[in-house]
Amino acid sequence: MRRVLAVDGHSMFYAQQKVGWFFDPRRLLALAAEGEGVELSSAFWYAGLKDPSDQRPFRDALTGLGFTVRTKPLRELAPGGGGGAEGEPQRHYVRANLDVELAIDLLLVAERCEEIWLLSGSRDLERLVEVLRAKGLRIVLISTEGMVARELRNAADSFVDLSGLRGRLEKADAQQQPVFQRQG
Questions:
Q1: How high is the pLDDT of residue 143?
Q2: Res 87 pLDDT > 50
Q3: What percent of the chain has pLDDT above 90?
Q4: Among 42, 87, 103, 118, whose CB has the most other CB atoms within 10 angstroms?
Q5: The predicted structure's pLDDT at residue 65
Q6: Domain limits, the chain
Q7: Tell me, what's the pLDDT at 76?
Q8: Is the pLDDT reported for residue 85 higher than 60?
């Protein structure tokens, strides 16, 4: 079985903050490649950047591990409407919005795989998941409670809560160096 892995970096950053630990991309790749007859045919990572040098060592390490890394500059979005209560600062939001890039990549590889592991919580990906399932692919959604849109979760074949994968995926600084610190 050929499997594809797609990581929505923005969504997963906040999901990992919610569960209180961060996963190691190496361990994620190893987990995605497990199983008899499983071939991890592609791995994608999508990330928004403050500037072109933002997260450069981390992105280089991801590429070295075999991820195809897609990036876009973050855009600041002004708060909508009337703002907060009097005296409260208005919240500004930043987004890169890589949903189109993620959709294109997964539609392009759909003919060459049977299963997609999607690490995201974005409601905007619901229709993509429906289309991929209509093409016969199995979609495994990985996120965490409270950080995943109900519509996206309902569209997927199965849901795996990130918190249940802690023992398999957590970065373990005592066991290994973080992925973004290479030794040469």
A1: 96
A2: yes
A3: 74
A4: 118
A5: 97
A6: 2-45+98-169
A7: 75
A8: no
Q: Assess contact for 58 and 177: CB atoms under 8 A.
A: no
Give per-residue pLDDT as tens, 24-42.
999 999 999 999 999 999 9
In SS3 terms, the chain reads as CEEEEEEEHHHHHHHHHHHCCCECHHHHHHHHCCCCCCEEEEEEEEEEECCCCCCHHHHHHHHHHCCEEEEEECEEECCCCCCCCCCCCCCCEEECCCHHHHHHHHHHHHHHCCEEEEECCCHHHHHHHHHHHHCCCEEEEEECCCCCCHHHHHHCCEEEEHHHHHHHHECCCCCCCCCCCCCC
User: Which of 58, 36, 42, 47 shows the shortest CA–CA distance to 11?
Assistant: 47
Residue 34 confidence (pLDDT):
96
Give CATH for domain 2-45+98-169. Answer: 3.40.50.1010
Distance of CA 150 to the CA centre of its chain: 17
Residues 6 or more apart whose Cβ sits within 8 Å of residue 55: 47, 49
**Residue 62 corresponds to which tokens in the numbers above?**
């991801």
